[in-house]
Specification:
Mean pLDDT: 91
Largest sheet: none
Pfam family, one: HDOD
Protein name: Putative signal transduction protein
Strand content: under 5%
CATH architecture of the largest domain: Orthogonal Bundle
Number of helices: 14
Radius of gyration: 19 Å
CATH class of the largest domain: Mainly Alpha
Distance between the termini: 41 Å
Oligomer: single chain
Domain HDOD: 22-215
CATH topology of the largest domain: Hypothetical protein af1432
InterPro entries: HDOD, RNase_Y/CdgJ
Length: 279
């Protein structure tokens, strides 16, 4: 049996037996999510928890001062940054910024795959969030949340992380990146749902991870649809006809203003602002 076939067999067996090792959220993200759920949590309490991770604290201050939040007055302290972001948003924001800690390996060939996966996740998050922000400008009463959209984009394919972790035990497969990609495409949706359930992420995240590969619009629109727009922009869908039908539907739903939405100057500016938060 080839290394590729062995990996696929092992993944199938572990999925069936529910024994596949799933990635766990960074400890700082778990702490922030726990304290955010407490009814008596204060901004000062949250700042104290975030301060336990200096790197994350610095990134939150950067975010609070970024064009992404559209603020001109700079904040200089972590408490000011937490106040600006808000308790209701910081759970998703801090989790998104901490996720990069999971994409690390001591093996260079594995790290290359993890870096590629993380870059793809950032791209999807940036495209989908930029589309949502443009949509919000025309539909200010929408219930969609920008911070939730960004996190949803970052974890839309989180199951692929578990696939790479399992493949790390079979180094031969890293010489066949196309095969590794195909394996991920096959099993990542199911694994993604398992990961998100284990992390306590709500149904909207799980739905997006399960369904974004389908070249078919949701009715009414969901976060999944903005991730599908990212898939279109990245040339993911193989059927040009199905993609055009999907685009037409999104034009009718007013999720986008023009078919070439990714070439709009406003989109490009928002996209770059969001990407800069993770670089």
């Amino acid at each position: 049996m080839s290394a590729q076939q062995a990996l696929l067999t092992i993944l199938d067996q572990k999925i069936q037996a529910d024994t596949l090792v799933l990635p766990t959220l960074p400890e700082i993200a778990l702490k922030i999510r726990r304290i955010a759920e407490l009814p008596d949590t204060s901004l000062a309490n949250m700042a104290e928890v975030v301060a336990q991770d200096p790197a994350l604290a610095a990134r939150l201050v950067k975010l609070a001062n970024s064009a992404f939040l559209g603020r001109t007055i700079k904040c200089s302290t972590l408490l000011q940054a937490v106040t600006r972001i808000g308790l209701s948003q910081i759970k998703h924001v801090a989790t998104a910024l901490a996720l990069e800690q999971l994409f690390v390996s001591k093996y260079p060939v594995v790290q290359q795959q993890l870096d590629k996966l993380w870059r793809e996740n950032i791209q999807v998050a940036a495209i989908s969030t930029a589309c949502l922000k443009l949509y919000q400008q025309q539909h200010p009463a929408t219930v969609f949340s920008v911070d939730k959209m960004t996190l949803c984009g970052l974890v839309h394919n989180i199951g692929a992380l578990a696939v790479i972790a399992e493949a790390e035990r079979h180094p031969e497969v890293f010489g066949h990146p196309v095969f590794l990609h195909n394996v991920s495409e096959k099993v990542a949706p199911y694994i993604s749902i398992k990961v998100l359930q284990a992390w306590g992420f709500d149904e909207e995240f799980q739905t997006a991870a399960k369904n974004w590969r389908l070249c078919k619009a949701s009715q009414p629109p969901e976060y999944t649809d903005f991730i599908r727009l990212a898939a279109i922009a990245r040339g993911y869908y193989k059927s040009a006809e199905a993609e055009m039908q999907l685009l037409q539907h999104y034009l009718e739903q007013q999720l986008i203003a023009v078919p070439q939405f990714a070439k709009q100057p406003q989109f490009t500016e928002l996209y770059q602002d969001i990407r800069s938060l993770f670089t």
